[in-house]
């Protein structure tokens, strides 16, 4: 395992990701991690970039024990400065920030220890790299030698003369450094001698064994499913591990997509053989949403809280039934589909005050149930979850599903949510998605939906004037959902969707397309 210590750079998680792509297992921990508290010894350590300056009083620093472990260390950007700071305290604010492409000249050293040149082995002498930093070294710490330069950074790469310690000013983990992966491979595989045996198949075996050991011979697990990728993959894995001792619950909140509850039921019970209870709580949810017209956060709160109540009631029923059954013990575990980015988010070193956010999960909110949380996906990134889902036999359609928000269609019905409004929004959404799939665009688009606007417009339908509602279509492309751009459909496609919606959905006489990017818009309209 390669240990990545995170100093808060926006690219940190990519380091872990790239290493796993090389089949090297890697874990990322906050930079403040005490190495004596680790239960395993890393084969090598990577210090990430970060938004701080090492010379600030409150800057985060790596546990000095890292330099005593005797394992190779690679510092990237802030990580390079951190190594220089550890040895010589010679980092300065640069005259100007350097951000973007740069051309690196690699320096080779015949006559020096072999490890000095090992980081750039097999790479060309001129490399395109990506820079993003403000500080730079004023000079090299003693015992280090320059291994790469750029016009702006005379110490763009350095290596220790006798130990496998390296620092680079650029970011090898981003795709803007085209040969960056080769450099990471040189470090992890050739210099650290990390094993290259991490595969999804191995992960599945290990995780199933871990779940079985954790839950025991009789233990039972309960978990909510939504039909989304994460909860379905987590459920499929639990089923593989413990069979019928896993109980899935789908809460139908009345604001799911058209036919969704039935589809989830079909997939989970028929295809995956998972034990599933569907709770139809539509009326309860819609009753509580009544009269909430212009407060999206209130909608979210009502739906979130009611979900917890309904799920808890159901969990108690299943728990009571399980306790009475001769074959098994009480349910004591709660399954959560937490992914690695959520874990990183909650353990990351945030700001100079080193506050650690507590992870939000349903487990803590279920009163008096004393459930322990089990998170089989906590080491995986989204695309790895998709790969795992495919391995577990999930249909491609499910594996590549667009994300769908917990509050569902309720935050896509601007204004009051009523059964009638749900019917209209759902139907229009169904047509839009059906056409997107038919046009082969579903995978190109990151998220798409139809929203119902709280206004009426005039139209002529048949020979009559009508005064009815307006559907807004939204479709975006994004890689991280933090920024997004609207999808440039061609006119013929939009014409077809618009015609179908106006003709087929009662109560709609106009369709508009949302051409707002994020920012300033958000993806959802409420
Ligand atoms: P925004 O609208 O903030 O959405 O640009 C970014 C992503 O988050 C999803 N989203 C939610 N998901 N509960 C959820 O589970 C919510 O309240 C919620 N609000 C937004 C949204 O669908 C998009 O993928």
Descriptive notes:
- With 526 residues, this protein is of the alpha/beta class.
- Helix 6 (229-242) links the parallel strand 10 and strand 11.
- Strands 2-1-3-4-9-8-7-5-6 form a nine-stranded mixed β-sheet, with helices on both faces. A five-stranded parallel β-sheet has the order 12-11-10-13-14, with helices on both faces. Strands 15, 16, 17 and 18 form a four-stranded mixed β-sheet that branches.
- 33% of the residues lie in helices and 23% in strands.
- It binds xanthosine-5'-monophosphate.
- Residues 300, 403, 405-407, 447, 481, 518, 522-524 line the site of xanthosine-5'-monophosphate.
What structural class do the secondary elements suggest? alpha/beta
**Small molecules held by this entry:** xanthosine-5'-monophosphate
Q: Residue share in helices?
A: 25-40%
**Strand content of the residues, in percent?**
15-25%
Count of extended strands: 18
């Amino acid at each position: 395992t390669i240990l990545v210590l995170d100093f808060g750079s926006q690219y940190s998680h990519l380091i872990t990701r790239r290493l796993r792509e090389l089949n090297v297992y890697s874990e990322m921990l906050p930079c403040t991690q005490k190495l004596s508290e680790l239960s395993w010894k890393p084969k090598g350590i990577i210090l990430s970039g970060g938004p701080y300056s090492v010379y600030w009083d409150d800057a985060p620093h790596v546990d000095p024990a890292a330099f005593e472990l005797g394992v190779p260390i690679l510092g990237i950007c802030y990580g390079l400065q951190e190594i220089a700071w550890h040895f010589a305290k010679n980092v300065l604010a640069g005259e100007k920030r350097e951000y973007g492409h740069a051309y690196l000249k690699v320096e080779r050293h015949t006559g020096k220890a072999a490890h000095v040149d090992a980081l750039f082995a097999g790479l060309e002498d001129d490399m395109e790299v990506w820079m993003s930093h403000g500080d730079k070294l004023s000079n090299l710490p003693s015992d280090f030698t320059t291994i790469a330069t750029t016009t702006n950074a005379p110490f763009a790469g350095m290596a220790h003369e006798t130990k496998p310690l390296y620092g680079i000013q650029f970011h090898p983990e981003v795709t803007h450094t085209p040969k960056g992966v080769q450099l990471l491979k040189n470090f992890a595989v050739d210099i650290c001698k990390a094993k290259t045996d991490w595969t999804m198949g191995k992960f599945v075996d290990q995780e199933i064994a871990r779940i079985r050991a954790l839950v025991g011979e009789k233990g039972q697990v309960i978990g909510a499913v939504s039909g989304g990728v994460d909860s379905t993959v987590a459920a499929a894995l639990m089923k593989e591990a413990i069979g019928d001792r896993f109980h899935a619950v789908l809460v139908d909140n009345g604001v799911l997509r058209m036919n969704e509850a039935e589809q989830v039921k079909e997939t989970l019970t028929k295809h995956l053989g998972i034990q599933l209870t569907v709770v139809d709580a539509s009326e309860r949810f819609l009753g509580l949403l009544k009269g909430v017209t212009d407060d999206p956060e209130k909608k979210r709160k009502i739906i979130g809280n009611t979900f917890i109540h309904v799920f808890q009631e159901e969990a108690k029923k299943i728990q009571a039934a399980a306790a009475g059954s001769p074959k098994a013990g009480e349910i004591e575990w709660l399954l959560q589909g937490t992914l690695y980015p959520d874990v990183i988010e909650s353990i990351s070193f945030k700001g100079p005050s080193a506050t650690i956010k507590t992870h939000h999960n349903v487990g803590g909110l279920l009163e008096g149930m004393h459930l322990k949380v089990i998170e089989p996906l906590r080491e995986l990134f989204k695309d790895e979850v998709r790969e795992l889902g495919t391995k577990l036999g999930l249909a491609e359609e499910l594996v590549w599903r667009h994300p769908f928000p917990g509050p569902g269609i309720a935050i896509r019905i601007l204004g009051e949510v009523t059964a009638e409004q749900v019917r209209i929004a759902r139907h229009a959404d169904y047509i839009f998605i059906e056409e997107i799939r038919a046009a082969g665009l579903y995978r190109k688009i990151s998220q798409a939906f139809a929203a119902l606007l709280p206004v009426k417009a005039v139209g002529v339908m048949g020979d009559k004037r009508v005064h009815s509602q307006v559907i807004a279509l939204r479709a975006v492309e994004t890689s991280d959902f933090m920024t997004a751009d609207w999808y440039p459909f061609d006119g013929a496609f939009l014409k077809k969707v618009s015609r179908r919606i106006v003709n087929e959905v009662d109560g709609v006489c106009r369709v508009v397309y949302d051409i707002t990017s994020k920012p300033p818009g958000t993806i959802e309209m409420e």
